[in-house]
Amino acid sequence: MKEEQSRTLFGISLSDRPTWQQFLICTSGFFFGYLVNGVCEEYVYNRLQFSFGWYFTFIQGFVYLFLIYLQGFTTKHIVNPMRTYVKLSAVLMGSHGLTKGSLAYLNYPAQIMFKSTKVLPVMIMGAFIPGLRRKYPVHEYISAFLLVLGLILFTLADAQMSPNFSMIGILMISGALIMDAFLGNLQEAIFTMNPETTQARKHKKKNGSMEMLFCSTVVGLPFLFVPMVLTGELFRAWTACSQVSPNLYFGFGKP
Q: Which family does it belong to (predicted)?
């Protein structure tokens, strides 16, 4: 049981610390990483005028794989067949690509406000995903609805005041929210239907979330070629990075 509850962060063991300290360290690291990522994305899109969301996601996928490799994860640690991650990979890459692409039309606060409301579509979709069929009490639906209502009011105000606000961005981020509704529930369904995914640590392997990130990235990267080729973004983005500003690559990837 002690081995199953072990926690590490960047190779440093947190197991000897109280649970509240582990929680505080991990959540603080998450928010700090998300903050740095947001600053980088805002800088790349608004200051460097790099508006290629699909290519951004494509490069970011390789950053993920590199960081996973540094963690020591290999294909020997995989407990689920790769086909398990096909649907998950498709919606993951679609969500990331549309989210990043929307920054060319929305400012970062507006994008984050939209993404924060994904709780409502996730709750609704959770009632239909095989293996979950979740039901939530009425007060949780009311809370989610009020959150969405607050977003609508914020959006109406932002549309009047922001110089970087477009309906194209609204449509893109709305598409990302629809895919997020599938994403969270598909992830939970994989953990639910195969408990070994979360118990990999018992066999001295990396945890299931590492497997899920690795497999969904490997399977999902080829999906990105379709929108990149159809929109011509692949060649335009490659030219922008190789000729205009190669340093753009250093802005990619979440910590």
A: Belongs to the nucleotide-sugar transporter family. UDP-galactose:UMP antiporter (TC 2.A.7.11) subfamily.
Using CA atoms, how far residue 222 sits from 40, 79, 89, 217, in Å, is 25, 22, 10, 9
Please name the residue ranges forming H helices in 71-166: 86-102, 108-116, 119-126, 138-161
Instruction: Tell me the C-alpha to C-alpha distance, in Å, between residue 19 and each of 10, 15, 16, 30.
Output: 18, 8, 9, 16
Determine the residue type at 147. L
Nearest to 186 by CA among 93, 86, 78, 65: 86
Is 48 in contact with 245 (CB distance < 8 Å)? Answer: yes
| 252 three-state secondary structure | coil
Name the amino acid, one letter, at 183: L
| pTM of the predicted structure, to 2 decimals | 0.73
> Cβ(121)–Cβ(181) under 8 Å?
yes
Cα end-to-end span (Å), the chain: 30
Q: Is 236 exposed, middle or buried (0-12, 13-18, 19+ CB in 10 A)?
A: middle
Nearest Cα neighbor of 31 from 126, 124, 134, 112 is 112
Token duo for residue 7: 């926690």
Determine the longest span between alpha carbons in the chain, in angstroms: 56
